């Protein structure tokens, strides 16, 4: 009973906050990392792009907004030879908090479309957020909020809009809360009470459901009205054409003058 009560309370809390911003990470409470200095005096910024020692790749560094020292590194793949030789961006990494350590890396395909991104959102030196893209658009987000190295929240997107979320609220490595979204808004939430990875109860946001259904009904009515209007216009045009054709055919031929 205690477990059921805890999950129910968690579900109610999530239902109220699901349409808001992500909980994110409290960076002020997370342990910080510092850039290490190598024996030769250079700084180890924990690069996550593969470029060092490779003749077929080049790297460039720039200072992003608010940075005094370069904090953005772009790695390019050298493609082709001679006049066809050009560079294609395959990796970009950023030190977003200016501590000397790269904490975000994104990789690209040969078309320049985003493939994957990994980031250390709370700056504790460990990757805790994973993004996956499809066709250059965000498709999935996985978040490790308890710093155990494994995701406990999964977000899935369709057409650029949030479609569903899975959450592991009791930290057993398995999802126990499911959220379903329509048009980017929470419609219903499922809760697994007995830890069998199946939904035991669905909680609906009736107001959101009503608004979505109302929007869909209006769209259907507008589509039906537009179709009826077009059919009437087509019929009127056909009647007018038939009338014109009939009038010209019934005209009496001119008589010869005597």
Automatic annotation (TrEMBL):
Region (Disordered): 36-67, 203-258
Keywords: Signal
Top-rank taxon, per record: Bacteria
Compositional bias annotation for Basic and acidic residues: 36-60, 203-222
Signal found in the keyword field: yes
Signal sequence coordinates: 1-20
Biased composition (Low complexity): 224-245
Name of the featured protein: Lipoprotein
Lineage: Bacteria, Pseudomonadati, Myxococcota, Polyangia, Polyangiales
């Amino acid at each position: 009973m205690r477990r059921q009560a805890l999950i129910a309370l968690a579900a109610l809390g999530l239902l109220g906050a699901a349409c808001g911003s992500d909980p994110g990470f409290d960076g002020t409470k997370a342990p910080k990392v510092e850039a290490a200095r190598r024996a030769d005096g250079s700084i180890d910024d924990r690069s996550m792009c593969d470029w060092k020692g490779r003749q077929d790749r080049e790297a460039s560094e720039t200072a992003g907004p608010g940075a005094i020292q370069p904090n953005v590194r772009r790695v390019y793949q050298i493609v082709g030879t001679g006049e066809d030789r050009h560079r294609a961006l395959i990796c970009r990494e950023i030190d977003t908090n200016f501590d000397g350590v790269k904490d975000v890396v994104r990789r690209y395909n040969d078309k320049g479309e985003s493939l994957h991104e990994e980031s250390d959102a709370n700056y504790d030196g460990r990757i805790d957020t994973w993004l996956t893209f499809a066709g250059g658009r965000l498709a999935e987000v996985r978040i490790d909020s308890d710093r155990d190295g494994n995701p406990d929240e999964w977000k899935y997107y369709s057409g650029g809009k949030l479609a569903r979320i899975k959450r592991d609220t009791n930290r057993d490595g398995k999802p126990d809360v499911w959220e379903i979204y329509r048009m980017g808004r929470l419609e219903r939430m499922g809760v697994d009470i007995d830890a069998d990875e199946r939904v035991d109860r669905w909680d609906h946001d009736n107001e959101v459901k009503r608004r979505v259904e109302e929007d869909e009904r209006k769209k259907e009515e507008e589509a039906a009205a537009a179709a009826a209007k077009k059919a009437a216009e087509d019929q009127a045009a056909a009647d007018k054409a038939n009338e014109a054709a009939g009038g010209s055919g019934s005209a009496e031929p001119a008589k010869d003058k005597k």
